[in-house]
Amino acid sequence: MIRVLLADDEDLIRVALSHLLDLEQDIEVVAHAADGRAAVEQARRHRPDVAVVDLEMPALDGIETAAELRRAHPGCIVVILTGRGRPVHMSAALRAGAQAFVVKGAPASTLADVIRRAHDGQRYVDPALAAEALALPPSPLTDRELEVLRLTADGLDAAAVAGRLHLARGTVRNLLTAIRIKLNANSSSDAVRLARDSGWI
User: Fold this and answer.
1) Which residues of the chain carry a pLDDT beneath 50?
2) By CB neighbour count within 10 A (0-12 exposed, 13-18 middle, 19+ buried), where does 196 fall?
């Protein structure tokens, strides 16, 4: 049996998914959670094989939950479920350790199949999102510049970004200037908007 934890802040969706998965002979739902922190606690308690985690949840979102689960219960495979996924979310989820990224509008049988595939070590991403990701223009920013811009998007100022990345403040200011030049942006907030619209952060 594949032991599954379901984490979604919408009770109706969580219960419906549980009923659907209980129809599968090789899948057993062993725990539920309504937010990311509860999902991590339930994973510690029940040691599921797979956690199906909603992207948008209180306390910890799905991406943060995936990263926490990797630390708290490394044997647990994470499948991200979302109603409004974008390529940038898919990329962030996979970087955080998720094995699969599924859109809620997929057929009911898809989730069970994805759980099995993820449990077998295979990756899965929604085909439409994957196609959209391939069509995105490549980012002109370096990995370090993207890192700085992500932290700026989270509301950190140059000093806080410097502290987080162990860089000098002047280095961060230079990186932000390079980002604005490359993106032809008028400000850091404009650069964040442009990068988000292009799916880079």
Assistant:
1) none
2) middle
Q: pLDDT (tens digit, 9 = 90+) per residue, 33-52?
A: 999 999 999 999 999 999 99
44 in Cβ contact with 33 (< 8 Å)? no
Domains annotated on the chain, with CATH: 2-134 (3.40.50.2300), 143-197 (1.10.10.10)
Q: What is the pLDDT of residue 135?
A: 64
| Distance (Å, whole) CA 141 – CA 136 | 14
Parallel, antiparallel, or unpaired: how do β-strands 27-33 and 77-82 relate? unpaired
* pTM of the predicted model as reported, rounded to 2 decimal places: 0.70
Which of 132, 8, 26 minimizes the C-alpha distance to 81?
Answer: 8
Which tens digit of pLDDT belongs to each residue from 173-189? 999 999 999 999 999 99
What the block records as the tokens of 113 is 């199949």
Give the angle 123-126-130 at the CA atoms, nearest 5°: 90
Nearest CA to 36 out of 20, 16, 58 is that of 58
Q: Are the C-beta atoms of 99 and 78 separated by less than 8 Å?
A: yes
